[in-house]
């Protein structure tokens, strides 16, 4: 009977989490629709290249008719927008004439995932492990060095780290390229091309990973420092458990809750892209596409990117909420 109640409670909790995620995604979509409708400017003129003096009023009105801009925002346009979004249709780009926004995003997404995804993996592995060790060995030399370096990295903008890396390792030493994803004239179907891609990827990954490592070290150290003072840790030590057993059986899972929260928030950052870092290294990802769309006032592309960003954060938090139940039975 107790087991059935426990299972029922877990199912209700999962259902509640999923419902909140769906409602949040719906609100994100509505807000995304409203945001780009209140921005100053006439979409019909943007479609015509902003050349107001060289087009007639009839041509502007024809654009409004073709794109359905004459229809009321509520409920007609918002219903069309939600229906098209559910079918994966995010509209057409103003800057890239005739290109679907979905195609543009999918074209740039792999480069961003390669950059920030690998940087996240490196940062999680190195930052969490170093933070747990520093917190477990509080007051030691490694703790002081790790804490000081992490606070410095945490407070340093990633784009500044990127520029510093370019100045040192690309301009001064010439060890690594600091621009683009491939060298001029490189093909995309050979081992040499893959190695060239990885060389171009090294500095951007380092710039993103260094900042993230600082975050993970600070959070993991604070979490483990709080856990080691709990009564159950004192009891475990009194039972004769070794430091390794205490860390893995008791401290690790409880200390991971705030770390999981930070990881979930940063996973949204993976999909959105490190805009400033991509701008520094001219990396052809979502971040560079955002800058291009901003400069061209390409609202459909910006709308699609912001929707992707919001959805990725909601999904990441959904995964974090579900993970809490696995790490801490009290949450279930």
Biggest sheet features: none
Structural class: mainly alpha
List low-pLDDT spans.
Answer: none
Shape: flat
> Which radius of gyration do the C-alpha atoms yield?
25 Å
InterPro entries: BPD_transp_1_N, MetI-like, MetI-like_sf
Pfam families: BPD_transp_1, BPD_transp_1_N
Family: Belongs to the binding-protein-dependent transport system permease family.
Organism: Mesorhizobium captivum
Task: Kindly summarize this structure in a few lines.
Its main location: membrane. Helix content is 75%, strand content 0%.
Give an overview in words:
- The protein has 332 residues and is an all-alpha fold.
- The protein folds into two domains: 14-89; 101-327, MetI-like fold (Orthogonal Bundle), CATH 1.10.3720.
- It is built from 13 helices and no strands.
- The longest helix is centred in the middle third of the chain and has 37 residues, at 191-227.
- The model has no long low-confidence stretch (mean pLDDT 80).
List descriptors.
flat, mainly alpha, MetI-like fold, 2 domains, single chain, 332 residues
Lay out the secondary structure:
Layout: H1 2-35, H2 43-47, H3 57-66, H4 73-86, H5 101-136, H6 141-154, H7 158-172, H8 191-227, H9 231-238, H10 243-272, H11 275-281, H12 286-296, H13 299-327
């Amino acid at each position: 009977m107790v087991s059935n109640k426990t299972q029922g409670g877990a199912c209700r909790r999962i259902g509640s989490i999923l419902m909140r995620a769906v409602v949040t995604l719906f609100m994100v979509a509505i807000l995304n629709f409203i945001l780009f409708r209140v921005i100053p400017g006439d979409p019909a003129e943007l479609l015509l290249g902003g050349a107001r003096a060289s087009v007639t009023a009839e041509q502007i009105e024809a654009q409004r008719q073709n794109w359905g801009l004459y229809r009321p925002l509520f409920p007609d346009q918002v219903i069309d927008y939600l229906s098209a979004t559910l079918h994966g249709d995010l509209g057409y780009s103003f800057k890239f004439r005739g290109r679907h926004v979905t195609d543009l995003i999918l074209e740039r997404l792999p480069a961003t995932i390669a950059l920030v995804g690998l940087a996240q993996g490196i940062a999680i592995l190195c930052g969490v492990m170093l933070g747990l060790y520093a917190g477990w060995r509080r007051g030691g030399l490694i703790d002081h060095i790790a804490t000081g370096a992490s606070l410095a990295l945490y407070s340093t903008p990633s784009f500044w780290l990127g520029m510093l890396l370019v100045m040192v390792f690309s301009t001064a030493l010439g060890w690594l390229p600091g621009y683009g994803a491939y060298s001029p004239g490189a093909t995309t179907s050979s081992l040499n091309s893959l190695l060239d891609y990885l060389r171009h990827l090294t500095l951007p990954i380092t710039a993103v990973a260094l900042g993230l490592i600082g975050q993970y070290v600070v959070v993991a150290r604070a979490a483990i420092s709080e856990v080691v003072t709990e009564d159950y840790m004192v009891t475990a030590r009194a039972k004769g458990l070794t430091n390794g057993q205490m860390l893995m059986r008791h401290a690790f899972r409880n200390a991971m809750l705030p770390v999981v929260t930070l990881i979930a928030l940063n996973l949204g950052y993976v999909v959105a892209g490190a805009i400033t870092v991509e701008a520094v290294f001219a990396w052809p990802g979502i971040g560079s596409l955002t800058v291009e769309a901003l400069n061209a006032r390409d609202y459909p592309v910006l709308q699609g990117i912001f929707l992707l960003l919001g959805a990725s954060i909601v999904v990441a938090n959904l995964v974090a909420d579900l993970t809490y139940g696995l790490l801490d039975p009290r949450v279930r």
